[in-house]
Design goal:
The chain has about 280 residues and is mainly alpha-helical. It has helices at about 20-45, 65-70, 80-85, 90-115, 140-165, 180-200, 215-225, 230-240, 260-280, and strands spanning about 5-10, 15-20, 45-50, 75, 120, 205. Helix 4 packs parallel to helix 6, helix 5 (about 140-165) packs antiparallel against helix 6 and helix 7 (about 215-225) crosses helix 8.
Amino acid sequence: EENKLMPGYTHQQQAMPSSTGLWASSFADALIDDLKLLKNSHQIFDQNPLGAAASYGTSLDINREKTTKLLGFDSVQENPIYCGNRGKQELMMLQVLNHVMLDLQKMSEDIINFSEDQQVFKLPDEFCTGSSIMPQKKNPDTLEIVRAKAEEVNASQQAVQGVISKLPSGYNKDTQQTKKHLINSIETVTDTLEIMNALISELDVADNYEVKDDVYAAYTSNQKVEADVPFREAYSQVKDEQNYIKHDEVKDPKSQSYRGLEVFWEEEKQKLKEVKTNLL
């Protein structure tokens, strides 16, 4: 889709010129940061707890390094009590998943706002439904469900934190209840990413939508400053006169590189394939 001018908002009011590309790339930036969080957390997850037994090790002569290699872990988690103090890793993973859903929740809210009141985006029909009683309605149900699903993941994070927050050291059966929250949240995030990817690929930009002249107010005052007018005076002049200098610039998309992350996760996928081969 062509990068087009669109209004940028602060306090839910048109504020400055933006672009569809700049808006979209802000979420690329956010999701790349989420991948960084996952990568950093992965260093903690990637430890083998097997052999800790009931949190105090075993007198049997076992080879923890061998199971570490066979299962594809990076290292052995050494302290058996810490191995038994389960829940922290699950909570960390849920925190990462919660960050992803927060970004998708904000994206959904933006698309809803920009497709209804502002008419910047045109939602694909297959991701909308009609009203049960109002024939004219085209409701963004998919995006609304995404917003709600984000709250489910957040609730799972809070639930796991509550389960583990007051446990003593050593294994406790309470931690069994953390697994359903983690597994359900992983499935929710995976499904939501797939759905949002499909929706975004079908999202169209409308041909005509309103960009108010006053989004150029800051640019106009800056032009006066560059002409040696003191900023306070330039600000007041623009506010009083409301005579704005427009420009044709459409802001380019901007986001950080993800190439290092791409290599890292490709290596992890290859490692997982090797583990499956070893075990099967």
